[in-house]
Every structure is written in structure tokens, then in C-alpha cells.
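Regression test case RT-17, inverse folding.

Input:
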């Protein structure tokens, strides 16, 4: 049976619009052309799809049964055309993005949403890990592109570009009875919570100020521990915004006690050519305002 997509399109449009003339106007074809396509479909299938009345068409039972199948075939044909266009644009079948757990933020979710809406046939995977894990995933090829804290040396195999910078604040549990701003002596007596990767790369002393400390590889987990009253920490302010608004933690630092802004970096293998989806992710992340 030699059916054409044009026949199916004419048939579906005629059912949807309730007549050949209405369907022809909708899809921009001559009435005679559309009528011929519908008639040929009936001949090719051997089925009567419409009952012709003087001023209208009535879909037969066979026509009703074939209608949804015809719509499905047209939809699949559209998917095929879109996939072909995607391949012509150089869009890969799969893309893996690695996001540092310390940088997880709704703004990045919006970027990912935009990429998927633009390239709906892209199989996208998101990995979450600490800074060293993201770097390792990029080096091993497990991830195509990543965003991570730019606090470690980048191997020569990795290309990196600045994403954005963000403010870091000292937060303490709201339940603590402690001066604000606290003296360093007072803070040393309390348990400090810090990133484990800083110790892994030999930079623990850049953050930890005392002998009592606990390490963790997730900013969200560090925040939850502060909220639970376990200790205090230096964290990105954007991670703490909701907890600050709800009074679960408080910023404890002097007005002249500012911490250097931290930076987020985009990373990918030097040997990996940027495809349009990767480039869109890079461009969108770089337009995000500082947190």
C-alpha cells in the first residue's frame, strides 16, 4: 500500500476542519488538490473514509478509526524531520553536564531548560558532585562540560572559562548565643564546617581558622548542618538566601570583614569541539548575574 504523508495530512485536516474547502484554506492548498489526495487515500486503502452529503462530509467509522493512526504517523514524521535538522546542525545525540554541588541553583536549572527547549531531541544527563569530581568527570570524558568552583589548578587537558563570581558569607546557627560580629577566639571554640575538597588540594588553611573542624563536600549539606546547630561555615550567599530569610541561620561578620568573592568556571576537554548545545550552555551561564 503506497500511502503518502500528503494524503494523510489532507485526511487529518479534512476531519479536523469538517470539510475539504475549510481544510484547503487552513493548509493553503487548492480544494481540488486536497479532494484528490483524500480520494486517492480511499482508493489506496480500499476504505470509505467519508460519507459525502451535498453540503458537508461525515466521517465514517473506518475514518474515525484511522484518524488517530494518521495523526500519529504525521507526528512521527515531524519528529523525523526535526531529528534530521538536529543532525545537520551538529547537535549530538547525548550531552552530559557536570555541576558542582556547591553551585546548584535554580538559575542553572533555567539554563538547562532553555537548552532542552531549543534542542528537544538531545538526550541530556546531569551529574552532581564536588569540585574534584567534576574535574575528574571532565578529564575522563564522563561529562562533556561542567561548571565548578575555580579554586584548584586546571590540568593542561582542560579548557576553562570564567562563568560568574559570587559573594561568600560567614553563617552561624540562629540558635547560637554569640556576639555579632564574633571574635575569632569565639569562633575557634566552635566547630567550623568546611569543604572537604579544600583539604584534598592542600588549601584547608585558606578557610579553616581553628583546630575544631568538620569536612563535607556539599554546600547544601554544610548549610543543613549549620541550620541544625552543628557548627558555622563560610558559604556562598546565594546558597543561604532562603535559610537567612526564614531566620534559620544568620550572617556573623563585621562590616569591614569582607571575604573574597569566589568564582565559578566552565570546563571542558580541550580536544572536544564545542557543539551548538554546549555553546548555548556556556553563553547562557556567562550571562547569569553574580549571585
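Golden output:
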Amino acid at each position: 500500500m503506497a500511502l503518502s504523508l500528503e494524503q494523510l495530512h489532507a485526511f487529518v485536516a479534512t476531519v479536523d476542519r469538517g470539510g475539504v474547502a475549510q481544510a484547503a484554506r487552513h493548509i493553503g492548498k487548492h480544494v481540488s488538490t486536497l479532494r484528490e489526495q483524500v480520494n486517492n487515500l480511499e482508493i489506496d486503502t480500499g476504505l470509505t473514509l467519508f460519507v459525502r452529503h451535498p453540503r458537508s462530509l461525515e466521517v465514517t467509522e473506518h475514518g474515525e478509526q484511522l484518524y488517530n493512526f494518521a495523526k500519529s504517523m504525521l507526528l512521527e514524521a515531524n519528529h523525523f524531520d526535526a531529528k534530521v535538522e538536529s543532525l545537520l546542525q551538529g547537535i549530538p545525540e547525548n550531552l552530559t553536564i557536570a555541576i558542582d554541588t556547591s553551585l546548584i541553583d535554580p538559575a542553572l536549572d533555567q539554563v538547562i531548560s532553555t537548552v532542552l527547549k531549543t534542542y528537544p531531541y538531545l538526550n541530556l544527563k546531569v551529574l552532581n558532585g564536588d569540585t574534584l569530581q567534576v574535574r575528574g568527570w571532565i578529564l575522563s570524558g564522563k561529562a562533556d562540560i561542567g561548571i565548578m568552583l575555580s579554586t584548584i589548578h586546571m590540568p593542561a587537558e582542560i579548557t576553562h572559562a570564567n562563568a560568574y563570581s559570587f559573594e561568600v558569607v560567614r553563617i552561624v546557627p540562629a540558635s547560637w548565643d554569640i556576639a555579632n560580629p564574633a571574635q575569632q577566639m569565639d569562633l575557634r571554640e566552635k566547630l567550623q564546617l568546611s569543604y572537604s575538597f579544600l583539604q584534598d588540594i592542600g588549601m584547608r588553611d585558606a578557610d579553616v581558622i581553628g583546630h575544631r573542624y568538620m569536612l563535607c563536600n556539599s554546600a547544601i549539606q554544610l548549610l543543613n548542618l549549620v541550620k541544625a546547630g552543628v557548627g558555622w561555615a563560610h558559604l556562598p550567599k546565594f546558597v543561604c538566601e532562603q535559610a537567612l530569610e526564614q531566620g534559620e541561620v544568620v550572617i556573623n561578620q563585621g562590616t569591614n570583614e569582607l571575604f573574597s568573592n569566589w568564582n565559578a568556571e566552565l570546563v571542558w576537554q580541550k580536544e572536544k569541539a564545542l557543539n551548538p548545545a554546549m555553546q548555548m550552555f556556556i553563553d547562557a551561564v556567562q550571562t547569569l548575574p553574580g549571585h
